[in-house]
Amino acid sequence: MPKLRKKNWFTILVISVPVVWLLGFVLHILWVSRKIDDNLGTSPQLRAEEDYILDSTWNFDTGPNTREYHWIIAEHELNPDGVYRPMTLINATFPGPLIECSEGDEIVVHVQNKATNATSIHWHGLFQNGSNYMDGTIGITQCPIAPGQSFTYRFNVSGQTGTYWYHSHMAMQASDGLVGPIVIHPRRSEEIALQEVRYMEDRVVLVSDHYYDLSSSLLIQYLQPGNENDEPVPPAAVINGRGLRDCSDLPNRNCSTTDRSNALFDLSSEHNTRLRFINVGAFAEFQIQIDEHEFQLTEVDGVDVHPQAIHRLNINPAQRYSIIVTPPTPNKGLYWMRARMVTHCFAYEEPELSEEVRGIIRYAPTSEPPIPQSKDWPEVIEVECKDLNTSALAPVKELAPPEKADDLIYLRSSFQIGDWRLSRGFLNDSSYRASISHPTLSTFTTGIQEKSDKHLYSLSMPYGFNTYLFDPSTTLVYQTTGVRTIDILLQNFDDGNHPFHLHGHTFWILAAGHGYPPENVRKGEGLDLRNPLRRDTASLESYGWVLIRFVADNPGVWAFHCHNGWHNEAGLSMQFLERADVLAKRKVPEEVDALCAVEGIEKGAGPDDSIWVGKWD
Ligand SMILES: *[C@@H]1O[C@H](CO)[C@@H](O)[C@H](O)[C@H]1NC(C)=O
Ligand SMILES: *[C@@H]1O[C@H](CO)[C@@H](O)[C@H](O)[C@H]1NC(C)=O
Ligand SMILES: *[C@@H]1O[C@H](CO)[C@@H](O)[C@H](O)[C@H]1NC(C)=O
Ligand SMILES: *[C@@H]1O[C@H](CO)[C@@H](O)[C@H](O)[C@H]1NC(C)=O
Ligand SMILES: *[C@@H]1O[C@H](CO)[C@@H](O)[C@H](O)[C@H]1NC(C)=O
Ligand SMILES: *[C@@H]1O[C@H](CO)[C@@H](O)[C@H](O)[C@H]1NC(C)=O
Ligand SMILES: *[C@@H]1O[C@H](CO)[C@@H](O)[C@H](O)[C@H]1NC(C)=O
Ligand SMILES: [Cu+2]
């Protein structure tokens, strides 16, 4: 080996210093940028206004397309209205991303659960015809997605258009932030026919009650002995995930409103805008107004209706309404949108309560912070738990229900205080408890395919409650064979307002009232069947009743439940197992069944009654 001369050493040194320095610099930059990336991935944020504006260049007439999404579900601390609270979010953003698609499209959502509790996503209002196992309903169509697990929802959207949403169907997890909008576009020509007031811009507006504590801790308090159905009162509300609390009102909370503001809607001052309201909250009914604006109501739960001019919109949890807003003349530029919770239905005085949340409608950009000087509509605030009067709303696409129902199911909805002073929700004598590891769908299909026990179910039995496979005291399952038309007459024996939702269908609202249903209603006679309103979530008012009709033609198991999260968890839920003959021949895909075998699926489930009373057998 030749000996290095001194000069060479010197050269190496001179060259290597800047090289090492440069290398270090590059490594440093890489490290910093990786850190920034990590932060972008995990530091939670509020959804940007533009994310909820529908695509103005949407091509209505192509397709079908596949819309594919990757969602990471994880826990974060976020302060949507100033108050920090633990939340469970999709991709660290509140509320969840918009799914915008056309009728006929295939939706693929890869869900990766990085949270500490199990989850599931339900696609509210979607028919899932042929894909019942993608309905996302714990205890009914699937087992939860355990922490650390992934699951892919894959289904086609067909036979429906309009405004829908998605949410977790695991206990009350939706209320911790797992909610988001879905919009299904029809063909252009159909859209023009169905929406009778033209508009140029199109947006979604999510309204929601907003709690400061985790739903799991509120739920355990609500269900504990001695609580007579005192639903937790939400201290606040948000519009598109935003609110603005005065932190000095909340000395016991970690609150900061730096970078927080009311939801801001920059609307065109020339053209009409469609606003698709969705109540994604757990409990509160909202009354929505825009100062000095009248608007046209044009859609109810995905069903386009002839325009109705109103200036106040009442919306219950899970319901959707589209309104068309026309810019006023003269135009003041700035107006308040007010979303008020109907506090009459609240069980107690909540010291932290701020019942109204506001958004800002802005017609022209301003340099100053936008503070509207607009005036509220003058009438008094609602004093009863009453829904919007929908009897004047008529669907554009006329569809008369079958003239007579094959079956009438009359059910009494009530809260009863039973043993151990536990207050629970009942449909007649049944109070639902989700069987986390044995969803109805697989219990039925595997039961039928593995055992040929004739008594297991009776396919020759055209209809009735399946009390052979399911204990009706906790799992009330109405089973049908073939296609049947079913009337449900629900009567409310308490003072709450219950937005009842049927999965997999829209139903007709045939009649509604208060007190005892009249004889003709009980017999299903003398009803106006000429084009009654159809929707998927109907209000059962305080001491009221409602008669709905639907055609049980969608093979699967479909939940029918109160969409008030607290009431659903207290047991106000039953199921329809439709077309048992068709379903018996179908298999639940392996990847859906496989969810049940994973450890941790019960994490985050509502409390079992046995935690208070102990187990007796
Ligand atoms: C969510 O995050 C994943 C992983 O970073 C990414 O692939 C996906 O595009 C994000 N989705 C949305 C809707 O932001
Ligand atoms: C969706 O539609 C496509 C094309 O019609 C079909 O091949 C596929 O099986 C459907 N998927 C489901 C889940 O029904
Ligand atoms: C408030 O919450 C934020 C976010 O979790 C945290 O960074 C901050 O330290 C908290 N402040 C107080 C006073 O607890
Ligand atoms: C609802 O509206 C209909 C038609 O506009 C009207 O006949 C009816 O009296 C209203 N019902 C209530 C309870 O106000
Ligand atoms: C529910 O209870 C009412 C009152 O006892 C009864 O008339 C009705 O038939 C019951 N419904 C069912 C489906 O059993
Ligand atoms: C579901 O599909 C079946 C068979 O194609 C059809 O008869 C039925 O009307 C559909 N039901 C719904 C709710 O989409
Ligand atoms: C997870 O579920 C458990 C049990 O219900 C509950 O105590 C805990 O607070 C939940 N965690 C989150 C982040 O929701
Ligand atoms: Cu209810």
Condensed summary:
This protein is of the alpha+beta class. Helices cover 14% and strands 33% of the residues. About 2% of the residues have low confidence.
SSE topology sketch:
Layout: H1 6-42, E1 45-46, E2 66-78, E3 85-90, E4 93-94, E5 99-102, E6 106-113, E7 121-124, E8 150-156, E9 162-168, E10 179-185, H2 188-194, E11 201-210, H3 215-223, E12 236-239, E13 263-266, E14 273-279, E15 286-290, E16 295-300, E17 303-310, E18 313-315, E19 320-325, E20 334-341, E21 356-362, E22 407-417, E23 423-427, H4 440-450, E24 463-465, E25 477-480, E26 484-492, E27 498-502, E28 507-514, H5 519-523, E29 534-535, E30 537-540, E31 544-552, E32 556-562, H6 565-569, E33 573-578, H7 580-583, H8 590-594, H9 610-613
Parallel strand pairs: 1-4, 2-6, 5-10, 11-14, 13-21, 22-26, 25-33
Antiparallel strand pairs: 2-3, 6-8, 7-9, 9-10, 11-12, 14-19, 15-18, 15-20, 16-17, 16-19, 20-21, 22-23, 24-25, 26-31, 27-30, 27-32, 28-29, 28-31, 32-33
The structure holds 2-acetamido-2-deoxy-beta-D-glucopyranose (7 copies) and copper (II) ion.
Fraction in helix: 10-25%
DSSP summary, beta strand count:
33
Main sheet: strands, sense, barrel? 6 strands, mixed
Strand order of the largest sheet: 12-11-14-19-16-17
Chain-averaged pLDDT: 91
Please give the radius of gyration in angstroms: 27 Å
Question: What shape does the CA trace take?
Answer: globular
User: Can you count the helices?
Assistant: 9
Low-pLDDT stretches are 32-40, 381-385
InterPro entries: Cu-oxidase-like_N, Cu-oxidase_2nd, Cu-oxidase_C, Cu-oxidase_fam, Cu_oxidase_CS, Cu_oxidase_Cu_BS, Cupredoxin
Protein name: Multicopper oxidase
GO molecular function: copper ion binding; oxidoreductase activity
Keywords: Copper, Membrane, Metal-binding, Oxidoreductase, Transmembrane, Transmembrane helix
